[in-house]
Amino acid sequence: MANSPQAKKRARQNEARFAVNKMRRSRIRTYLRAVEEAIASGDQKAAAAALKVAQPELMRGVTKGVMHKNTAARKMSRLSSRVKAIG
User: Fold this and answer.
1) The Cα angle at residue 34 between residues 59 and 47, in degrees rounded to 5
2) CA separation for the pair 63, 40 (Å, rounded)
3) Cα distance between residue 49 and residue 34, in whole Å
4) Exposed/middle/buried for residue 25 (C-beta within 10 Å: 0-12, 13-18, 19+)
5) With a cut of 70, which residues of the chain have pLDDT below it?
6) What is the DSSP-derived secondary structure letter of residue 43?
7) What is the pTM (predicted TM-score) of this model?
8) What are the tens digits of pLDDT across the range 20-31?
9) Which of 2, 50, 76, 87 could bond to 38 as cystine, CB 3.0-4.6 Å?
10) d(CA 79, CA 71)
11) Cα 4 to Cα 10: distance, rounded to the nearest angstrom
């Protein structure tokens, strides 16, 4: 347990940051799930549109420190190749 005032403040900051990052991660997953559903439905136009919307959200997660840039690049690459393969 945090005893010093500095450690108590740090604990509060960590809780707040955790909550914000959790929301950001959840938001990113929602967009990725929309792309996955569009791919599963077999509609290339819908999948491409969902991917176009999901890409900035993924990159925003990178700039905010929620995920590593190579992770986001890998996800984008794999999704775009799957979208391209439809049709």
Assistant:
1) 90
2) 29
3) 10
4) middle
5) none
6) -
7) 0.87
8) 999 999 999 999
9) 50
10) 12
11) 10
CA 87 vs CA 9, 11, 46, 75: distances in Å: 55, 51, 12, 21
The tokens describing 24, both together, are 């950001």
Q: Which two tokens stand for residue 43?
A: 């509609």
Tokens standing for residue 79:
């999704």
DSSP line for 8-42: HHHHHHHHHHHHHHHHHHHHHHHHHHHHHHHHHHT
Cα distance between residue 21 and residue 3, in whole Å: 26
